[in-house]
From TrEMBL:
TM region(s), chain numbering: none
Keyword presence, Methyltransferase: yes
Protein name: Trans-aconitate methyltransferase
Signal peptide limits: none
Organism listed in the record: Nocardioides daedukensis
CDD domains the record matches: AdoMet_MTases
Any one GO molecular-function label of the UniProt entry: methyltransferase activity
Family matches, as Pfam families: Methyltransf_25
Domain Methyltransferase: residue ranges: 25-122
GO term, biological process aspect, one: methylation
UniProt keyword annotations, A-Z: Methyltransferase, Transferase
Methyltransferase as UniProt keyword: yes
Length: 171
C-alpha cells in the first residue's frame, strides 16, 4: 500500500513516537487518519486505538485506514477521551497532534486515566504546530503544567523543518 500524502509535521511526530511492532497505542484526535496510517504501517502484533470527538474525523480515518481495520491493527471510535474506557490493560504510547484539550481546560481526570493505563516506561506525546506563534507559548506552558501536575516527567522535542514541537510526558 502506498501511503497517501501526509504532512511533514505528522511524519516527524510519528518518527519521534518510535512505534515498535508490538506497541499498544492510543491516538487522541485522529482527524483525517494520517498519523493512524503511519502508525499502523509499523505495527505487527500491536494495535492502535484512534479516537475523535468528530464523527467526520472518525469516518475519514476509517476510510483511509480500512486495510488496517480489517487486519485487526486499528480500532476507530467516535468518543471523547473523558468518557473512554480503554480496552487494553496497558498502553505503551499516547499520541495527540494539535489537540486543545490539554491546554484549554482542566484535563486532570483524563491525564489520571492515561497515567494509570500507561505501561512502565510508557509516554504521552503531545505535539503542536509551531507555525502558530500566537497560541504556541500558552499551549506549551499549560499542557506541560498539566502533565507535571498529573505526575509525568516532561521533556521537549522540537523540529525546525517542519515547524513543530512536542511535549513528552513519561511515567
Amino acid at each position: 500500500m502506498a501511503l497517501q500524502t501526509i504532512p511533514a509535521r505528522i511524519r516527524w511526530a510519528v518518527e519521534v513516537l518510535d512505534v515498535q511492532p508490538a506497541d499498544q497505542v492510543l491516538e487522541i484526535g485522529c482527524g483525517q487518519g494520517q498519523a493512524a496510517e503511519l502508525i499502523c504501517s509499523r505495527l505487527k502484533t500491536g494495535k492502535l486505538l484512534a479516537i475523535d470527538r468528530s464523527e467526520s474525523g472518525v469516518d475519514r480515518t476509517k476510510r483511509r485506514c480500512a486495510e488496517f481495520i480489517s487486519a485487526g491493527r486499528l480500532a476507530v471510535r467516535h468518543i471523547d477521551l473523558a468518557t473512554l474506557r480503554i480496552p487494553v490493560k496497558r498502553l505503551d504510547k499516547v499520541f495527540a497532534f494539535n489537540v486543545n484539550l490539554f491546554w484549554v481546560r482542566d484535563c486532570q481526570d483524563e491525564l489520571a486515566l492515561l497515567h494509570e493505563r500507561l505501561s512502565p516506561g510508557g509516554a504521552i506525546f503531545l505535539f503542536y504546530d509551531a507555525s502558530r506563534p500566537d497560541q504556541l507559548p500558552t499551549a506549551l506552558e499549560k499542557a506541560s503544567a498539566a502533565l507535571v501536575q498529573a505526575g509525568f516527567r516532561v521533556s521537549v522535542v522540537e523540529s525546525k523543518s517542519p515547524a513543530a514541537i512536542g511535549l513528552i510526558g513519561r511515567r
